[in-house]
Amino acid sequence: MDITGRKLFVRALLEEGVDTIFGYPGGMVTDIMDELYKQEDIRLILPRHEQALIHEAEGYAKSTGKVGVCLVTSGPGATNTITGLADAHYDNIPLVCFTGQVPLNLIGNDAFQEVDIVGMTRSITKYGVTVRDRKDLGKIIKMAFYIAKTGKPGPVLVDIPKDIQIQSGDSKYPQTISIRGYKPNEGVHIGQLKKAYKLLKSAEKPLILAGGGILLGRAQKELKTLVETMRIPVVTTVMGKGALPADHPFYIGNSGMHGKYAANIAVSECDVLFSIGTRFNDRITGDLNEFAPHAKIVHIDIDTASISRNVVVDVPIVADAKLALSKLNEWAEAKDTRHWMAQIHQWNNENPLEMRRDKGMTPQMIMEAINEEFDSCVITTDVGQHQMWAAQYLEMNEKKQFITSGGLGTMGFGFPAAIGAKIGNPDKPVICITGDGGFQMNMQEMVTSVAEGAPVIICLLNNQYLGMVRQMQQLFYGKRYEATCLRKRAACPANCKGKNKDCPPYLPDFMQFAKAYGAHGIRVENEKEIAAALKEARTYTDAPTIIEFIISSDEIVLPMVQGGNPMSNMILK
Amino acid sequence: MKNRWIALYVENEVGVLAKVSGLFSGKSYNLQSLTVGTTEDETVSRMTICVASDDITFEQIKKQLNRMVEVIKVIDLTNVQMHMKEILFAKITHCTKADQAELFQIAQAFKVEVADMGKDSVLLECKLTERRNNDLIALLKSRFKNIEVVRGGAVAIESISTSCR
User: Fold this and answer.
1) Does the beta-carbon distance from B15 to A129 stay under 8 Å?
2) How many domains does chain A have?
3) Consecutive H or E run containing A425
4) Please, what is the Cα angle at A316 between A313 and A317, to 5 degrees?
5) pLDDT of A505-538, one tens digit each?
6) Are residues B46 and B98 in the same domain?
């Protein structure tokens, strides 16, 4: 029996096991919305802006391992998802984003709310397509889910013209799909892996660089086994944070631009760098010519195109992290790395990661309190200084997940991502660590958090500035704080050199803001109040809580490697 | 930097050409020429792509093409025996009789066809390699003022392998 496209759409979602979607209505998805009204198995979350909507889907997908599903209308609905698509593309988050489209016969007419969204997003989606024939609808949706979640995951965009939604056609949804141009790698080259193992075995100063691929491939256990058998120290990228528990004796810390001193020196000094699931982004490598200059490099990645792209490697291995590591574990034998470990510990003692504790509340104290208060949770961050402090000081493990916008660095990501994570994990505390700049980019989502019953805890580090840029202005631009002071008003002097007694008050008042939405607000100005505030926030399960930490504007993220410099050239103080 | 050749099998679908060409512009790869047409299978198109790059970039280009869902197969023709031709039309107008005679000579030397002729014009149809077409254009430009040229971009196919001979 034939059914309408909109009926098949809902059937397809159910067949894919989708129980939650993030949707915003509009003229070109009213039919699908109407179909969703008639069923009870799929919950529709209604955010207040499509950009936040897609970040919510990202947080949901990342925290549950499921595909995040978005449904938005044509035109502005579709274009508002672009930042999120790029973000998911960079950080390899499986999403299927359905966009409504004007009817086929109007495409190209500059019809109301018509945009070529597939054309616009071609370079930031794993796959994108407009359904041009009702008979292809089922096949395309099947393809979309398959492509989004297999291989290196990513966002897929499916653009559905309104007439396709209404038209009758085949009722069947395909059970399997084969795409001739898309065959994700499912094996591992044993010869290459043996070569890699040999290098690792004979190394005197071996080091594992674990990227986000470990977490995407859910290979934490396999990594831990390898590390413990061979006794090899591990550094992580920001996206790889949590690949090995923070308290593990072989875990050194993050490497990269704001990484730990010992981690970056270890990368510069190691003789074999065994990297898994990382793109060797410029934030990790710094000056490419000086990156791991003494090391033979092994690189395991599911994506062929990530290998030997930025850093030319000695042993490339295209494979899923979990598969490659379990194979390695079959051969792995104990190694003596005591000397090398002692060296790394010595570097760490020379320049440990630590902020002053003599006066006032520092970001480190806030992160430590979060570490202590929560033993099982999801933590999201926004982008900026607070993100780097979180990456430096938060301690992750099997029960604590870290979600951040690493590749695109999207301000406004943290809060909606937390809401999505909370919707996917209603029983876990979900904490959003954010700044006063990034939070304001999507703070309209407060209502989504309240209305959808997703009470997250927002730890807002308010330094009254766009701190990460301010830090650059402070260090490299003669303290010319252009466009970074969030207290600035039209009446302020043009060449302000920083805070003074005439500064206007900060806006908005986040406590009043919380109140306006029926949420809770706690302002913390003293380090002694941190722990109590977190405890109090935990007790509020009816609505979200904003804990506003008033921190000094002068606090900067250290250590730091200036862009383009070698990783061994760190600014420490 | 040298010229390299790729034969690319892609799905014959809307937007695939834009996606492939977008990769080259988006990642600053130096595209020299790109031709596309359907194959014996109408669901498949084949592109012949010429790109100027160093070794590392070229490896990356092939990988990037390979990871596109719509790309079925990437064949590197750079170091294989292949047949490669480009169609080119050259129209030379305002010719004297002597010019026309010279153009006939050039056609003979380059083994190209005189496709059409008017009282003071000549139309050449050339199926040569790209390099040979470049030579021809250079010569025409040095001898004549009123030239109109259209080039089709090169198409290439692997030679029949020796084992099949």
Assistant:
1) yes
2) 3
3) none
4) 155
5) 999 999 999 999 999 999 999 999 999 999 999 9
6) no
